[in-house]
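Hi everyone,

Forwarding the result from last night's run.
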Amino acid sequence: MQDSCLNCGATLSTDQNFCPLCGQKTDTGRLTIRQLAKDFLVMISKVEKGLVRLLKGLTFRPGNVAIEYIEGKRKKYFSPLAFMTVCIALTVVINNWVKPWSTKIEPDPTVLARIYDEPTREKYLRTVERNAWIQGVANKNLSTISVLVAPYYALFLWWFFKRRNRNFAEIIVAYLLFAAYSTLVSTLVFSPLMGWTRDSSAYYYIQVTGFIAQTAYMAWGMKVFFGLKGRGGYIKMLAALSLIGVIGFILLLVASFLYVFYGA
């Protein structure tokens, strides 16, 4: 027991177990291996409980978990931002291991053989190189991108469902929870299949199935989060998410086209 707090210097009385100013324990002593091990186990225990609750909730009742978190039950669950970081890290590790990416785009020898003037040849090679760069970025960062587009989706969802009394920040949190979880599960299920079927016709069917599954899960969670009722509410949310996705896809296609053919 110290006469003053070792952290902030506040005066302590003998009956105080914690500093009244900064909250540090009053019996803080020298660090030992035993103390480090104890602190580590306590930290893991707290993280594990919140993470297990979050994973369980996102599996069976995602919309309710998001509602509980934004309405004040913050300590009960693992932090959404920390959860997003963990999920992104895991998906990167898994994808780098199974490599579920289609073969890099290469110049077509048949096309090159038909091009006789050098400027046209250089332009063709430049467009192929830029397409390959876009493909590489999309392949290796798709999981990360699907989570980081939260502000884009949140803005449209806020606009479409503004009468549901959810603000922009709350929608971002809900989207991050659903997107991080669905991306991780999709990576665990579909990435190995895509790695095994690379460059076959089945590859693209598996990829599309993964996108559909993620959108269906997102619609389930968002339907409850926004208080929509019944099958009609689910269809309404699914249509909204699909429309937002199509708009985003078109914008990406336009940006890619401008970069490939008119970029500096």
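The radius of gyration is 25 Å.

Cheers,
N.
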